[in-house]
Amino acid sequence: MRIKRILAIFLLMVTIMSMPAFAMELPGFLGQTPNRKELSLVRKYPKEAAKVYKCSQEAIAMTILFYGESGQDDNSDAFRHCLWNALMRKEVGKSAAKRWANAHEYGKMGKATRMDKHNNKVGRKIKTKGSHLVIAYRVRKAVKSGKCKRLNSKRKLVKTNGDGLVI
Predict the structure, then answer these.
(1) From residue 107, how far is each of 59, 74, 77, 88, 167 by CA, in Å?
(2) Is 127 a member of any domain?
(3) What confidence category does residue 167 fall into, taking pLDDT thresholds of 50, 70 and 90?
(4) What is the model's pLDDT at position 28?
């Protein structure tokens, strides 16, 4: 019964957001299928989940706008995680944003996870006054100036830079 309710909430979010391409599958946060911690939060905070999901979709869309792609372990990945957390902070508050970001990283290990957690934390520190686009430009500045982390070609955790930016 709970799984059906969760699925209904996700499908409702998709319908509301007019994204019919996702209607046939369970949408996830930052493009990933929700893990058990995220599903637990969806059950506990369904209205908040809708906002968090919308923030994740906006973060992906803006990453593609700023970088031309939504990559993995690179500057665009750092931007996406940082922006998602900044947008969540604006929409649901700092503590809720941290709760959702931690749930998203649940059970993951390694350098890529350390990178994501660092970038999530940076995002929650971004000033959230203004529009989502203004916030995205603040995140862009943080990524370009090296406040975030990425993995280089040797899989070493390093500071982000301006590489890959389209705008």
Answers:
(1) 22, 21, 19, 21, 34
(2) yes
(3) confident
(4) 62
